[in-house]
Fold:
Amino acid sequence: MNYKEMIDKNKVKSILLYLNDPTYIKKTVLAEALDVCNYFELDYLYAKVPSLYKGLFSLSYLVRKDISQLFKTNFHPGGNTIDYIGKLIYVVKRNAGLINKYVLLKRDIERNVVLGNYQVARDLITKANTEIGRSYWATAFEIKIERLQHGQQAAIELHNKYYAANESFWFRRFCTAAYYTSSFDYVTDLPKRLYTSTEYEYGVTYNAIIQAHFLAYEGIEEGGWMYWDINSSIIDLYNNLLNVLPNLKKETYADEMLKVLLTVLQETISDPYIKRLSCLLGIENKTEQSDARNLIINNYLKNKYSEVIAHAQTYLETNPLDAEILLLSIKSKVFSGDVENLFNKNGSIYDKIRYHLFALFLHNDDTTFHYRKLKGICRSLYESYEIRYLYSYIVALERKDLWSMCNNAWKYSNYRNISDAVFFDSLQDRISYIDSLGLDICAEELFNTTKDKLTNDCWELSIAGNKGVDITNKLIDGINAGLVPGFTKDAVASHIFSYYVENKEIEKAVSFLVDQQVNDYALDITVTEEQKKIIQDCHEEIITSIPLDLPIYYYLTNADVDTVYLAYKNYLRSIGVKKASEIKIDGNEKVSFFLTFVASQKILTLHVLRFKKVEDVMNERIAICQNLNDFYDKKVYADEIAGIIRDLRILELNKKVDDSKIYVDIQSIKDSDLDEAKALFMMYEQSSKNINLLEENINQLIALLAPIGLSADVYVNINGYNQSTEKMKYHKELLTKMFVQVRDQFLLNPKSGLDNYLSTRIRHGTLINQLRNHFETNNLITNKKGGEYSLNDYWITKKFKLANNPALQCAKRFTEFSNRIDSIIFEFKDTYVQVSTENIKDKANACFNYDISCFEQDINELQLRTELNSYEAILSEIFNILWLHTDDCLVIVRNRVAHVQKDMLEELHSLEKDITDIVGRTNTTWASFHDAITLCCNEIQNDIEVVNRWFNRSDSVDFSFTIGQVIDTCNGFINSNNKFRLETKVDCQSQSEIKGRYFSTLYDMFHDMLNNVLYYEKEKSIGGFCKIDIMEINDYLNIRVSNPIDSSEEEKLIEKAKEINDNLDTLFRGGRSRTEGNSGCIKIFNAVHNHLGTRSNDYINSVENGEFIVKISLELKPLVV
Amino acid sequence: MKILFIEDDKYKRESVISYIKSLNRNTLIDTAASIESGVQMGVDNLYDLILLDMTIPNFDISEGRVGGQSFKNGGEIIVRELLDEDVDFKCAVLTQYETFNNETIEQISERISMRCEEKYLGYIKYNKLDEEWKDNLKHLLENVKNNNNR
Structure:
């Protein structure tokens, strides 16, 4: 190629004329030159420009003295890819001295960062900033080091400082990207955060720039964005050039001009990366290979692993970022049988990399974690070419495709490696390249399919491209003999599986996968959806021949639960057992795997012809685990059994919670609160005696007068009978008064009465949560904020995407719906689930109506029952009457519940109709709205069933429980009945078995506390956990429940806690427990001091260190069994 | 005609039963409200038609709250179980839902049809606000009756 032909001298001349014309702005002339000239013209022009303009034409402005100068210029040169590369190389050549200095500094900085020498790295960056100029590369590195050294907050502050220092759009975007990518925990939505919509005018270019600079691991493509760094800095421009070079299109590499330009580059810049690239492109035939490095590779190829480890250790001390040698040394550790991971996972980045690589190659545990960690580190340090090499290897390994394992390796690394050969298309070129490395390897040997053994890295497959049957058979033999190393095992096994499926050997494919996976649970064989379908289509053909393998295969490949279930059932049938617990365990690994993983509760629950309820399923699983534990004696089985027993207990306790809401503590009332009733009884008893005496006298009179033929009627009528009626009236009045006394205690005793339990167990949050929950989870109702229902954003904006009038109409209708549903619930709670008597008249519709008139007949009958001649007997009968009446009331409530259900369902149907009218059925999301309504209708019916169960009488107390079970039950209830999840951290150190009669009280107590936390968190969204700590100290059960609070409210809450503590006793004695406006504190007070034992119990609220804390201390002795 | 109607929604159940009875008061209708009771009745008895809801719990709700774990494709699970148990049956789906775990009723129906072949008579979309389901159900019942008479 004649370069002179590439120069349009007239063009150059005209630019020079402009340059010498004082009317032209010189920067404009430079912009014109950059736009229209190719590399050779720019070079020629530079030689011609007067020395006064040499600086300008070297683009010396790119040596930025201050951060604020980055992106201050706005050059937009035109051209194609080669033109851009030429222009960038022109700039690099003009600033070669600085860039050569940068290349050395960059390697040193990266090495020190990786080794954790952050201060040294900072000093070197400062040197680069001072001597080469500011760059966003250095800015990003500084933010990264700040985060590594001083944490996230420090990184944010540094980011803010730099962000404020430069107003340019691009710098600020880069600054933000630098902050995000400074984290090793890769933010999964990072691309979403950094990219913009391609619908915008410059969206594509914008994203390409962001990608090349901060998300390069996603791949880079050549394009018009490449000139962008001509406006940033000299360092950034050079980095970007290197980003572009390995990512060009094939035809661009074939362009002779590119080779010419790269020749210029490699002659000018002393960068090993460019040297290696030049070597691959045939620009340079030979590069020097380090003897120390080659020695390590040779030893590895000869399986001399201990020598690799020894030499690599020394070599890596000075070259920790030689990724290939690092990989070989870690692999050698695995091959030499080292199984102890002594690398420090919390040490420097270099330590972390080695720790996770070793764990990954050992392949003993779930590799996903190590892949994630390594990828996170590599993405964050992607500026380093060696890190890029490491990343490409990890990603290829994770992809598990043996034939493309090395496809991208040639793009990275400063060193020449065997895997670089993939760059070449022809076999001969690949062999020649490997031969040129000067290793003790006959490259041709790699390409020989008949040789007995594969290299440990399976280079034959990825570099030589051997894909024949011979190779597959060798792999099968290798994997069966346990010769395939852990780090390629996923890929090898995936290939063999695919090979069987492709060759329609379905049985072999399934059995191979199952055999391998059962023996190595960490193994991860890729099964594509297409392969799954092929196997599923052959289900009928293979189900009889491999009855045990098939359910395991379905389980391992995440098949539908019913598919796994039917295969499970088929296996049971094939061996003639009815239940999995009947299978005899004899050490067969597959059978054990089947029982451990396939015969899970999820599968057993579908075996409905064997197991009729959830408890049956749980007991079957316990039996399976018991059998496994008997044979293998493994902790995992014992733990599962313990877990299921715990769940069974919670299931049982859940039912108790539902069934024990209607309660009156009769014994407690009898013991302490019936003095007045007793006094009335004594008067009543006296009155009975008087009446009896009168009757006796009349009878005697009749007996005396009868023999002489006189009737006593007239005497009785005139003198005695009236008196008797009066006395009878008085007698009944006393009985009625006593009845009322007992009734009032039964209903309104603040500690033990029905209304207390209705309030605590039903009205206080529970009912609202139960009935409102599914409307909320289906996003059909919203909550109130500032007294108004918030907008139903979910359906109106997110789903229906409505605007203008339809949006307003929908908003109005949804608000109306929220209002109506709440009205139904609150009306039920406040009007119907209430107690009324002739003295409590404000609850006219109360279902629990105990007006004395209801008991007229009962009192009359009671008065006539002469056998009830003791206080205990009559009291017992009164309670009996009250309970029977309560049963009638419960029927009324349940009828009312049915009304609530009917009203709610009607509201739902009406909402569906109205919204459908506005939105139209053609709206793409109408179906999901319809489904939400249907689901809600269904769930509401289940909720109503639950609520109905609450309104039944039960007094079963014959059981015991632990405080941990109360917390689990309560937590489970709250989280299954609230869209908003309460996050708890429980540390329970108590195992005491507590008497069943205290269960409901303790449950109510925790329910109130957790409910308060939930509501607070719902409103304030503080984040953090509600901590529950339980300890047994000196025969006391110490309960501590705490949750973080809004710091701005701390003082207010301190006051409030103090006020509550001071007033609890007064409020309680004043009967204020019937109101629900005290956050349940009075109820907790009541529970602690009156229901749970002794005077020495304690309950206190406080605010400390940004947390609201409830401390309860209960004497254990009276509570425990 | 003897029908097994597997449906856990009490209101839908009453509405459908009432409609079937209005067509022919002599129709015998057994009901089940879960996969468990549905499969058991399907195995124990012979029905001219099994009318299935698609989303149902595995156990009857009265067995406790956990029993009410709902399966989006519960109807399909019942069909597969009956096929596995070699039960002679004819079935149709009567559902209120449009989608099931990102699948449409059409997709599920196609799969059931492939598994059941002539045993499956199709699906009907039930909607309280739209009475079209009644015509479809009537048509379905007539088909079953005509086939029985042949």
